[in-house]
Amino acid sequence: MKQESNKRLYFTNDFSPENVAELQAQGYTLRKASAYHEADTLEACAEVAGDVPQAYLDLIKRNKANIVTANVQVSITPELQKVIDDAKAECEKVVAENAELKQQVETLKAGLIQGETADLTGLIPVEQFDAVALDLTNTKEQLATAQGELISFKNDVGAMQARIAELQSVDYSKLKVDELKDVLKLKGIEFSSDAKKDELLALLTPKE
């Protein structure tokens, strides 16, 4: 394969103006990591870097291409990225709910300290302060644990690859309808709410 010696590819899913400007200033041509498909051919270049899909690295190896791999990171699949994004969104939701709950508690306490009649509409009764405080503490601990596990999982390439392999090796025919629907949701595949098992399996079975 004839390669363009001056072409340097950088695979990434971060196309923010700042990141694009920084990478282009380094002489890279950007490619969207999550848009790569295993059927795609090897692009002529002298170097690849960033979140290079594993399949693309394998393709370089099979073709014995004289391409430099610099600062290569393992790319996260769209399915795994969705799981990570959903977990992050859930964590942010819990943080927002806790902040609102804390504000309600502070408002009620301030009204009682000043000796004024506090508007208890929609607020937590005084006798539940201790319970609310305990719930807040437990929730924060659970959130910290969940965030720690998420960060650890994202940094553990082996764990991510194992999870991907596990998802790919599932025998869908043994799953129940609800479980099949969960898998389709995880993969971002649309389906009818009243779809039968055979119809759901057809969506998960690659077409020849």
Automatic annotation (TrEMBL):
Recorded hits in InterPro entries, A to Z, give: HeH/LEM_domain, SAP_dom_sf
Q: Matching Gene3D superfamilies, A to Z?
A: SAP domain
Q: What is the lineage of its organism?
A: Bacteria, Pseudomonadati, Pseudomonadota, Gammaproteobacteria, Moraxellales
The UniProt record lists the HeH/LEM domain at 173-204
Record keywords: Coiled coil
Q: Report the protein name in the record.
A: HeH/LEM domain-containing protein
Coiled-coil ranges from the UniProt annotation? 84-111
Signal peptide position in this chain? none
Report if keyword Coiled coil is assigned.
yes
Q: Per the record's keyword annotation, is Amino-acid biosynthesis included, yes or no?
A: no
